[in-house]
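Researcher: Quick test of sequence recovery. Tokens follow.
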């Protein structure tokens, strides 16, 4: 296990809605998982902004971050990510400044450029503003200005927010985000859990072009990948049927609550859907402790990644918590 001991391990949670669960139960499950991963030594617990999806309840991301941070005590909590085009920089500075004041030195702010939803919903969130003219880098720099103590002399200030100790991360699923994170000298998290196609190239670009900044002296790479662990490979693959069904629902535009392995309908996949599904889930690690250990060792050696962020779409909550436990043992 030695080779994984220096790798940080964290969680991405979309507050996935299970079939039959209320939203209240969904949020309670999220908090319970956060408490368990805190006890297991995970570094951070991130929640991701999505909209207009019946199967994802993390749309009011800042509020959910506060709920999770308030119910835990040491684990870092943050966004993976906030989709910045849906907001003003001032608004996000105020929200995360408030979170930092409530939960000092524990709040992360991961920033993405994607809408986190369909184009119609995105246009409503942005009050009809055209996405093609959006300058992500400029907005990030404006956000950094609002969060800086030096902004105190400007006419527009973020209070709370000014001088807050909130760590920023650039999220991405393409090489474009790699160049941006490198130029800004910020840590880079890649969404390999659903868009792995450009992962390897993006990581190389980020490391090659990284410019040291006051925020970070050397590159810091994070890979979000699907990980499902169980006592046996057979059990893990059985549990993974929920994850594959969820991705198939995206492909077929059926955004419904997630279902148990018994209720999946994967056998009716077309060849074309199977091809897309294979591409979306290329960075998925499924199996027993020994299987995962070997696969993750190879992955770390190949990529030189600094942190693995685990996305575990498992229907059975007991099995999900057991999966988190098995994964944590690989890194200790």
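Model:
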């Amino acid at each position: 296990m030695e080779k994984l001991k220096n790798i940080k391990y964290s969680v991405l949670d979309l507050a996935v809605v299970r079939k039959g669960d209320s939203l209240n139960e969904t949020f309670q499950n999220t908090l319970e998982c956060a408490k368990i991963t805190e006890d297991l030594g995970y570094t951070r617990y991130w929640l991701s902004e999505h909209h207009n999806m019946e199967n994802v309840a993390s749309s009011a991301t800042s509020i959910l971050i506060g709920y999770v941070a308030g119910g835990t005590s040491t684990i870092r909590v943050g966004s993976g990510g906030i989709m910045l085009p849906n907001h003003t920089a001032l608004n996000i500075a105020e929200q995360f400044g408030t979170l930092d004041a409530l939960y000092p030195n524990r709040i992360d702010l991961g920033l993405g450029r994607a809408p986190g939803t369909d184009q119609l919903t995105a246009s409503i969130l942005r009050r009809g503003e055209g996405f093609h003219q959006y300058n992500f880098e400029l907005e990030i720099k404006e956000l950094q200005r609002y969060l800086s103590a030096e902004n105190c002399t400007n006419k527009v200030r973020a209070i709370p927010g000014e001088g807050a100790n909130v760590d920023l991360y650039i999220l991405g699923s393409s090489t474009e985000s790699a160049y941006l994170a490198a130029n800004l000298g910020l840590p880079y998290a890649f969404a390999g859990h659903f868009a792995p196609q450009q992962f390897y190239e993006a990581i190389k670009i980020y490391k090659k072009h990284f410019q040291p900044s006051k925020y970070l002296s050397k590159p810091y790479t994070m890979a979000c990948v699907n990980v499902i662990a169980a006592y046996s490979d057979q059990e893990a693959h059985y549990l993974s049927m929920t994850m594959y069904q969820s991705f198939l629902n995206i492909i077929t535009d059926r955004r419904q609550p997630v279902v148990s392995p018994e209720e999946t309908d994967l056998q009716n996949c077309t060849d074309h859907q199977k091809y897309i599904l294979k591409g979306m889930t290329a960075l998925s690690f499924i199996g027993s402790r020994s299987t995962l250990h070997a696969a993750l060792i190879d992955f770390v050696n190949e990529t030189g990644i600094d942190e693995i962020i685990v996305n575990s779409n498992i229907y059975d909550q007991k099995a999900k918590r057991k999966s988190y436990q098995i994964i944590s043992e690989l890194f200790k």
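The first strand starts at residue 8 and ends at 13.
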